[in-house]
Structure formats: C-alpha cells, structure tokens
Write a structure and sequence with these properties.
Helix content: 25-40%
Shape: elongated
Number of helices: 28
Number of strands: 39
Distance between the termini: 122 Å
CATH topology of the domain at 561-780: Histone H3 K4-specific methyltransferase SET7/9 N-terminal domain
Strand content: 15-25%
Radius of gyration: 47 Å
Structural class: alpha+beta
Length: 1191
C-alpha cells in the first residue's frame, strides 16, 4: 500500500494502535490488549480484590476503545482521510476514528476501510469504481460510514483492488463495486469450486477471517454464528449507543455541573456508566472470539467475569438510585436540554442489558454439548437473575423514597433528604408506637436505610450503626413489643400485630446489617465499630463525639472520645465509661496515659502537666495515691503519696539547694524520722516537724566533726555535744577513733559559728570517728518502699489474698498478656486492632496447664477454647461487663471475630499468651520446677527463669526490678557532690531488706525454695546489675577514699619498676623468682584483674580463688616440688599480683565484697576460699602500712 499502514490480519491492529499509549497507573501494558487475552480473565489476579479486578476489566475495555488510525503517503486523492487532498510528508491521523475502538483496517488500490468493535464500518478514498458508495460518484477524503437496511452490525470487511466486501453479523455478504448490480449475496456462495475446496479442508477454528480480498478476488468463509449473532448485534448496538450518549451528552453535562449541589453524585454515576461501556467492549470482543470458535462459551466476559460485572452494575445501580432520590434527572434534562424520555432511555440502557445476558445464557445452554459447561452457565444465570431482582428492588425503593420526600418537603424530615438515604418503613403505613403511650397520641416512626427517626413533637434520630434491637416475649400488658437500645435511650415499641412486628424487626436488622457491611442473613453483631455524637442533654458526656467499639448501646472497647470541655481520650471504654487503659488530654492540665477506673485516673499512669511537672506512679480517684515519682523544676520526689500529697516514706531531691531528704512526709511536708544530706556533704539525721528538723538528732560534717543533741539544719538549738576531730585521714572505719575537742552543754548559733551558753570544752579527747547514735533516727528498712511493694502486689494479684502458686501463675499470665497488649496498643497509636487483654477476674484455676511437664502456655488461664487477636479482656479489677460477659473487645473488625464475640456471652475466655510474639521463649511457659520440690538441678533452672523475668519489662518481676532500681538510684545515686561515706551502711542494709522482700515473693511462685537466708545466693547474681553495684561501690569508694588513694599512689610507684626490680623490692624468695616468668603467673594477674569487672560477690570470690589456684600452678610449672608455698613466701607473690593487676579501688572492692556476702562471709572464711580472701586483704593492708617501704 502506497498510502496507509494496514494489514490483512487484524490480530496486530490493536497493538499498533496502542503502541504509543500508556494506560492509567501503568498497570496494563499493550500486550494485555492483544486479541487472544481480551476474551478471558487470565490477567485478573485474585489477590487484587473485587474492586481491583473490576478496575482492571475497565482498563482493558478502555484500551480496546482507545484506538487511532494513522495514514501516510505522498499522493492524496482522499486516501489519507484528512478531509482534504493536500499532500503531507508526515504521518497523519484519520479524521473521526479516534477513540472509536477500531479493530480492523484494510487498503485497496486507492481506498481504505476501518471496522470498529461495535460493528460500524468506515470507508474513504477513491470512489471511481463505487467501492465506497454506489449512490455518490465523488471521492471521499474523510471516513464515510457504511449503511444498509436492518439492525445487523458489520462482522468483517476487506478491500480488493477496486472493490469492498462486507460480511454482516447475520452472515449476509455485501459487495461495493461497479461490477455488481445486486451487491448482496446470502446462502449460496458465488465463488468457484476451487475456492470452496480450500475451505472444506478443515482449517483450525478461527484461523480464517470471514472475508478476505485481493485484486479482483474475494474469499468468503462460511461461518455459522447461530443464536449468538443476535446477542452480538445487541451488545454492539448497546456499545455504539452508549458511546454516543457519553461523548455527546454526559461529558458536556459533567463540565457544567462543577458548582451545583451533589455534583460528585452525578460524576460518580457517569463514571460508572463509562466503566460499563468499557466492559461492554470487552464483552463484544469475547462474543466475536466465541463466534469464531477461538474460546468456549464460559470464556465470554459476561459469564467468565460475572462477579466483576455484577459488582460494576451494582455500583452503577447505587449511583443511579442516589440521583433519583435527590430528583437529579430533571437537573440533567435542564442542563442537557433533552427530553425526560431521552434521559430515561439513556440511563436505563445498562439495566436492559441484564435480562439480555440472561436470555443469552438460556440460548447458550440450549446449544452447549458439555454438561460441565451447562452447569457453569446455569450458575451464572442464577447470579444475573439474583442481581436483576436486587436491582429492581433498589429502584423501587428509590422511587418510594422520592415520593416520601416530595410529600414531606415542608416537615422537619426534609432536612434529612440525602442521596444515599432510603425509606424502608413508615409507621403511617405499618403501625408502630411507644409502649404505654396514649392511644391517640401523635407518634410517627420512620425507618430509613441508615437511621430510625421518631416524630413526637420533635425530630429524634437514632443512627442504625449504634442501635440494637431485640424481640420481647408477649406478656399480659404488652404484646408484639420490640426493645430498641441506643447510646442515650432505651425504647419499648409495640406493633399492631405479629406480622407488623416481624416486618419492623426484619427491616431494622437488615438496615443495621447494611450499615455495617454485613451479609444479608448474617447475625446482627452485638459488638460494632461506629461513630456517634452525644446530645447536649447526656448526663455523662454532653456534646461528646465518639468513634470506636460499642456493645449493646454502650461504648465498650477501644475508642476515641472528644468531649465538649476539650478533653480528648483514646483507649479502653467499658460499660459506657472510660475504664481501662488509655491516654487523655485535658486542657490546662496536661496529658495522662495509664489506667482509668470509672472515668478517673486509677492505677498506674503517667501525667505530664502543662506546667512541665511530670508524675509517674499510682493514682486513686484521679489523684496521686500510692508509690510514684513527681518531677518538677524545683524538686524530684520518689516515694509514697496519699490523696494527692506526699505522704509516707520518700526521697526528695531539692533542685535549687541541692539537698537530699530521705524520710517520712505528712501532707507534702517532712514529718517524722529522716535523713538530710546537704549540697556540702553534711549529714543530718533526726526528727522533722512541719518541714523543719527539730529536737534531738545527729549531724556529721565533712571536717571530721559531728554533733549529738538538739538541733536544726542551721545549727544547734539546745543541749548537745559537738565533737571536733583533728584533721587526720589515715584512720578509717566505722569504729575508728580520732583525737580532738568536745564541746558539751547548751549550744546555739550556726554550724559555722557555734555559741555556748552553758557548757564544757574538753581538749585533746579521743572519740569515735562516727557517732554511735547514727541510725537511731532513720526509718526501719521494712517501712521503706512499702507502698511500692503493695501497689505492685495489688496490680498483679488484685484484692485476692492467700493465693496458692497455681493461682499466682495465672495472675502472672494475665499480667504479661495485658502488658504486651498495652505496648502494642501504644505502638499503634491506640488503633482498634490486633490487641488482646485478660480480665483480672478470670478464675485462678490452672487445671488446663501441665505443671509437671512445663509445657503449659502461660496464657491458658481457663479451660475454654482460644480466640484470635482482637478478643479482649479487661485489664483491671474493675466493674462488671455488659451482659455479665468477661470479654472486652479492642476493635477486631472482621465478621469472623464478631461472630466469636457474640458466641462468648456468659463464658470465660482463653487467649494463648503466645498469640503476642515474645522475645523470650523462656517466659512463654509455666515452670514445672521449684513447685513441689527443689532438687539441686532445679536451682539453675529457677535462676535461668528469674534472670529472664527480671529483664523483661512485661513480666511482673521485671516491672518490680525496674521500679525498685529507680528507687534505690534516687536514694543513693544522682549526687551533685561527693556522697558522704555514712550512707554506705544505710544503702547496704536497705538493699538486703529489698532482696529479702523480693525473695519472699519468689518463694510464693516457687514454694519449694529454701528459707530466707538463701536469698543472697539466688538473687545477688541476678539483681546486682551493674547499676545497683555501681551505686553501692560509689558509697564504699567514698568510705575508703583516703586508703585507696594511698594505695593508688604506691601502686603507681611500683608500676615504674620492672618485674625483676619489683620482685627484689618485694623480697620475693630467690627460689621462686622463676615463678614470675611463668605463663600461669600471667594468667593469675589477668584473673585478678577481672574482679573489678564483676558485680556478683560469689563470682568475685570465685575469681580470687582461681587466682590462687593459678599461682599454685605457676609454682608447679616453674620450680616443681622443690619449693612449697607458705605464708611467708606467698605474701610477696600476692603483693606482686595485686600491684600488677592494677585494681584502682581494691579497698572499696574488698569492703563491699565482705558486706554483700553478709552471713555467708563467715562460712566462706573457714575453708580454702577464706584463706585466699584473707591473704588478698593482708596484701592490701601491707601495701598501706609503713613497713611497705622498709628494706
């Protein structure tokens, strides 16, 4: 062809036409529009969802229609189709064929044709031989549509040299040329026998086109479309008319409605109309493929993609009815200037195709030989028939709603008119009234698709999403009654008879299902997610807005609540009130996150004040109560609260003065025994009254002085004794004595300027380094942090006392599950999904657990079956749940979980703790050891469990460890100055008390553990983390600072010596000199160095013992049995080890080690371990002695 890009095979036409186009979203490539893809659904992936499959079908159909035809050539006698005879050197688009869905093009000698998907044929070019039109003689420089009488579309066409051959859907043949007088051939072939023989050789189905032409020859293929031909013609006619309607009416209409009301409704209807047109193009293509025998009947788009097409038609029906309900079609008529009949015909056109599909399926069933395919066809027909009934009901409902709005235009109901609101029932037509109301009272109930409305003097709206309905059994005084529950009101409504009652009940339940997106006959869920705005008359939340979980009229589950006073809450609701775990913002107050009870802060939480103060701890009735931490610009307080005030034992750090107070408080004031350490390091111990130290007490100062008697923080105030020591730093220890002066009598003034009114000054006296009264005015250790342990036990066990170990493990399972659920809830911003809680009221029985095998899951706290994530139990020991159910949902949206919730009324639950992933598999199971007996092999297993538990902040022991470590740090850490050495005794005794109390708790978990004196061996390796040990070490380092500094200086001097020089200096036995060069001796030095890196006393003792064993190995290796180690020759070697190990604060390490071992120290000293530790201490003392430098 000299003038046109064409082909005799139409398989490549669509690909050429779309080669330069990129479809929307880039999801459909050109290859998806090839002739063999478009008739099937091989590209509609099931994982893209129903909407995704519909969208892809629409894009594929749109790709079929989005075609253009381009021509090129140097001679132009109309062949280019540009509307003129101007020669063009570049390729040009043919006029009028853009977006027409061209599927075939062909060219003769000087004319061309284009066939569209909807059966239209266009011809243009030279008409000298009447190959374009027999009625006209002039050439056509633009496409001219081929017309004949009848409704049949063009099936195929071909161009010869000077003629055109056309085959119609009814298989009639038409020829355009000046050689054919009667240009219609039907039934008998006009071709010679040789051509007929070619066709009768059984070519593969679909391999031949209906008609081919070349030169003066034409080849006709005897296809038999049968009953499908009329359905193909009808679908092509629909596609053709719909394209014209959209392009000529809808597109101009949409451009003119941007500023009118409900423009988005009109736009949605027209867009779905266009989507139906696109899918119709796919359906036409599949019908053509089926007619040619290339696909089976079940591959026709209307059948193969039946669900997707019904979904599309359903969406169009919804938009169509929406427009009808707002009287939108008169607006279309007015803007388009079309008659109502034309508009109705256009927009009703897709609905007429529904029954056309059903008729087509009937015809296909009759002609289909395979039974399997007939079954598929029958199934598809049922689906289309079901949708047809659904569509008719929807249109009837819309028409009825429109009549209702027209009648009630001047009533308060008029303001409720909206596109998607439908009238379901009207009590004027189907009687319904309030129970026990006056017989002739004016009552009017209207059920819409989304709400139930009541007109009794004023309009009241009850949204169906937050409405629950139940049938009430007939009684003597009330019959045919229904109970309607809403968030603010409960109604008892009575129908006139049983049939009316059933109709109202079914109508409301169906409306609720539709609003919640549930299947038509599914159970109406009791648990729902919905939004609601409370009225201004609501007693608890006037004007509040809530979105979240509901249960039978009550907010119940995770939700978001915005109150009229500005408060905003996210978290758990229960029985219509804030109850559980959540976060609340309160204007002019701050943000609280934690536990709530009946709308108030209750339990553990964090309150961040707008004044920048922060409280973290326990609440009761909305105020601080129990153990907590209060941080402000002026002070930091850790301790006990009561009624919002500091009350009980606590530690107060004054951020302004730098003073630290540890003692009792009453009504936020220091009252009772306490210890105060000032910024200067001065230590005061005594009784406080009204925030002031008064009465007898003890004061210790950094200048080796102390006072006993009546005093204040400023100075002495009465009878007492002031001991002023001489500046001597070489003597340390609690019982060490120093020399100085003693001032006794009635004293006053300040500590810098003490005045004596009546007393005695004694010079050159010897007295204790520290007062013997120290500790007499402090709080008993058992009273310290008592509220912390009580709050922790209440949080874990609730109000239950005397629980056995099985019941305690049940509580631990609940605690862990709730803690993880809270973490997940916070990480997701309190979103309503995938969170599960236990109630504390769950039975303490663990009968379902294998306590012997150790394989029972911690979460199985009852004997019921498990639930998936989203099943929720309330985390606090709070009030009753609605319906006596133990569940509290946290927002699972799926119908499967809804049905589970509805089936769980009056039952306990079992949620496996493993449903929430845990980092620690050890904590997933209840231990089987230490419960009934405690064998030696059980102790390592118990230690292993406790080690993991104390590190896991979701485990109650981990929470306790975290809190007690914070308390200990607040007492003996965070110093703004060098801590006073006196505190080391308080810290050690307090730490032992804490460990004893923790051990008592562990013994309740593992009843077979030995008595109280074993707590050090079990807990110290676990609890003495680096943080706790560091706090104690700082205090002991302060106590031993002078000696350790002297030791350090002498150690530095020895570092300058070589090994040989140091050995001679230490007078190492000549026979043992080879020992120093032994590898074992180097290992002994390294082993001793590790002592400073350990914080467990037993591990430290073990390293000391190992060091001496390596020393013995070094002797054996270097000198053998010739020389033995004894007390005299061992000391120099140990001195060598100590000096080379370079332990900076060896004195503090040894003193702390001895105190940590406590009662176990004496037992250790009886054996070889005692010998090793004693020798190490002796070496340290020798380095400090004056004899160290003597030759």
């Amino acid at each position: 062809s000299r003038h046109m890009s064409g082909s005799d095979n139409n398989d490549t036409i669509v690909e050429e036409a779309n080669a330069s186009g990129v479809l929307q979203n880039g999801e459909v490539s050109v290859s998806e529009t090839s002739s063999m893809d478009l008739g099937s659904t091989v590209d509609l992936h099931s994982d893209c969802g129903a909407e995704g499959r519909v969208a892809k079908l629409t894009r594929l159909g749109g790709a079929l229609l989005a075609t253009e035809v381009w021509c090129f050539g140097s001679i132009n006698r109309g062949q280019l189709g540009t509307g003129d005879h101007i020669k063009r050197a570049r390729i040009n688009a043919v006029l009028g064929l853009g977006g027409q869905g061209v599927v075939r093009i062909d060219s003769g000698r000087e004319h061309s044709l284009a066939l569209t998907l909807d059966g239209r044929l266009y011809l243009w070019g030279n008409n000298f031989h009447k190959q374009i039109s027999r009625e006209d003689v002039e050439d056509f420089s633009f496409p001219r549509r081929f017309h004949i009488q009848g409704d049949s579309g063009v099936l195929a066409a071909a161009c010869g040299g000077s003629h055109s051959s056309v085959v119609m859907n009814d298989m009639s043949v038409h020829e355009q040329s000046d050689q054919q007088e009667d240009n219609k051939t039907s039934g008998v072939s006009p071709f010679p026998p040789t051509a007929r023989d070619i066709v009768e050789r059984d070519p593969p189905p679909g391999s031949l086109e209906p008609v081919l032409a070349s030169g003066s020859f034409t080849l006709f293929n005897h296809l038999v479309f049968g009953a499908i031909a009329k359905h193909l013609t009808a679908e092509q006619k629909f596609l053709q008319d719909s394209l014209v309607a959209y392009n000529c009416i809808m597109k101009p209409f949409l451009k003119r409605i941007s500023n009118i009301a409900y423009s988005q409704i009109f736009d949605g209807m027209c867009q779905y109309y266009l989507s139906i047109v696109h899918v119709a193009a796919l359906n036409v293509r599949s019908l053509l493929e089926f007619g040619h025998g290339r696909i089976t009947c079940t591959d026709i788009v209307a059948l193969n993609n039946c669900q997707e097409m019904i979904q599309l038609y359903r969406s169009y029906t919804k938009r169509f009815c929406d427009v009808m309900c707002i009287r939108g079609f008169p607006t279309v008529e007015m803007i388009t200037e079309k008659s109502p009949k034309e508009i109705q015909k256009i927009f009703f056109r897709p609905f007429r195709r529904v029954w056309a599909f059903i008729d087509m399926i009937y015809d296909l069933v009759a002609m289909e030989p395979l039974e399997a395919n007939r079954d598929v066809l029958t199934e598809r027909r049922t689906m289309w028939e079901k949708f047809s009934n659904e569509k008719d009901l929807a249109i009837e409902e819309a028409e009825r709603s429109l009549r209702f709005w027209e009648v009630n235009q001047k009533t308060p109901l008029a303001k409720l008119q909206s596109p998607d609101r439908r009238l379901i029932l009207d009590s004027k037509e189907l009687s319904l009234r309030r129970s026990q109301s006056a017989r002739f009272s004016n009552q009017w109930f209207i059920l819409f698709s989304d709400s139930l409305c009541s007109m009794t003097g004023h309009l009241t709206i009850y949204p169906l999403k937050t409405l629950w309905i139940a049938s009430i059994a007939d009684g003597e005084t009330r019959k045919f009654a229904l109970k309607v529950v809403t968030p603010e009101e409960t109604l008892i409504l009575c129908a006139q008879n049983h049939e009316d009652k059933i109709m109202w009940l079914d109508g409301i339940e169906n409306g609720i299902r539709n609003c919640l997106g549930r299947a038509p006959k599914s159970k109406v869920p009791q648990y729902r997610n919905a939004s609601y705005t409370f009225s201004d008359k609501h007693p608890r939340f006037p004007g509040a807005k809530y979105f979240g979980r509901w249960y039978v009229g009550n907010m119940h589950g995770i939700g978001h609540l915005e109150m009229a006073d500005g408060r905003v809450f996210n978290g758990q609701m229960s029985a219509g009130e804030i109850h559980g775990y959540g976060r609340m913002f309160t204007p002019n107050v701050g943000i609280y996150e934690g536990d709530f009870e009946h709308g108030r802060y209750s339990g553990y939480g964090v309150l961040e004040h707008q004044s920048k103060a922060t409280y973290e701890g326990n609440f009761r009735d909305g105020v601080y109560h129990g153990h907590g931490t209060l941080i402000s610009d002026h002070f930091t307080y850790v301790g006990e609260f009561s009624g919002g005030a500091r009350h009980g034992y606590g530690v107060l750090d004054d951020n302004i003065t730098g003073d630290k107070f540890m003692g009792m408080f009453v009504e936020s004031k220091k009252a009772g025994r306490g210890v105060c350490v000032t910024m200067c390091g001065d230590y005061f111990e005594g009784n406080f009254v009204n925030d002031t130290l008064a009465g007898e007490g003890v004061a210790s100062f950094e200048n080796n002085s102390y006072y006993e008697g009546e005093m204040t923080l400023v100075g002495p105030t009465g009878r007492g004794s002031l001991f002023v020591g001489v500046e001597r730093r070489d003597i340390e220890g609690d019982d060490a004595e120093i020399e100085g002066s003693v001032l006794s009598g009635v004293l006053s003034g300040t500590w810098q300027d003490v005045k004596i009114s009546n007393g005695i000054l004694s010079m050159h006296q010897t007295f204790r380094r520290y007062s013997k009264l120290l500790g007499n005015y402090t709080i008993e250790n058992e009273k310290k942090w008592r509220s912390l342990f009580e709050d922790w036990e209440t949080q874990l066990l609730g109000s239950d006392k005397g629980l056995d170990s099985k019941q305690i493990w049940s509580k631990i399972a609940i605690f862990i599950t709730n803690s993880r659920a809270k973490d997940k809830l916070k990480s997701e911003g309190f979103a309503s999904k995938n969170t599960c809680f236990y109630r504390q009221e769950v039975s303490g029985s663990l009968d379902g657990l294998s306590m012997r095998s150790g394989t029972g899951s911690l979460g199985r706290a009852s004997r019921k079956g498990p639930l998936d994530l989203g099943d929720v139990l309330h985390p606090m020991t709070l009030g009753k749940s609605p319906g006596n159910s133990t569940i509290m949902d946290l927002g699972a949206f799926s119908q499967r979980l809804e049905e589970k919730f509805d089936a769980l009324d009056q039952r306990s639950l079992d949620i496996p703790i493993s449903s929430v992933k845990c980092k620690n598999a050890t904590l997933e199971f209840i231990p089987s050891f230490g419960v009934t007996k405690c064998d030696p092999e059980d102790l390592p297993a118990i230690k292993g469990y406790l080690k993991e538990a104390f590190k896991d902040l979701n485990h109650p022991l981990g929470v306790l460890n975290s809190k007690i470590s914070h308390c200990f740090y607040s007492s003996y850490g965070c110093w703004k100055f060098k801590p006073t050495a006196i505190l080391h005794r308080h810290a050690m005794s307090e730490w032992e008390s804490i460990c004893r109390r923790i051990y008592a708790v562990i013994c309740r978990m593992f009843p077979a553990l030995p008595g109280d004196e074993s707590f050090r061996r079990l807990l110290y390796p676990i609890l003495l983390s680096e943080g706790i040990y560091s706090l104690l070490f700082v205090l002991y380092a302060s106590k031993c600072s002078h000696r350790d500094e002297m030791y350090r200086q002498r150690m530095i001097g020895c570092d300058r010596k070589t090994d040989q020089e140091l050995a001679l200096f230490l007078r190492v036995d000549t026979d043992l000199m080879p020992l120093i060069k032994s590898s074992y001796f180097e290992d002994a030095i390294g082993c001793l160095k590790q002592v400073k890196d350990k914080y467990c006393p037993l591990e430290m003792v073990s390293l000391v013992e190992k060091t001496f064993q390596l020393l013995e190995d070094a002797r054996t290796e270097s000198v053998g049995a010739q020389v033995t180690l004894n007390a005299d020759n061992t000391i120099p070697l140990v001195l060598f080890l100590v000096l080379r190990a370079n332990i900076q604060h060896l004195g503090a390490e040894l003193a702390l080690l001895e105190d940590l071992l406590g009662g176990d120290f004496e037992a250790l000293m009886l054996g070889y371990t005692g010998y090793c530790v004693t020798t190490l201490k002796a070496a340290y003392q020798h380095i400090l002695s004056d004899k160290f430098y003597q030759n």
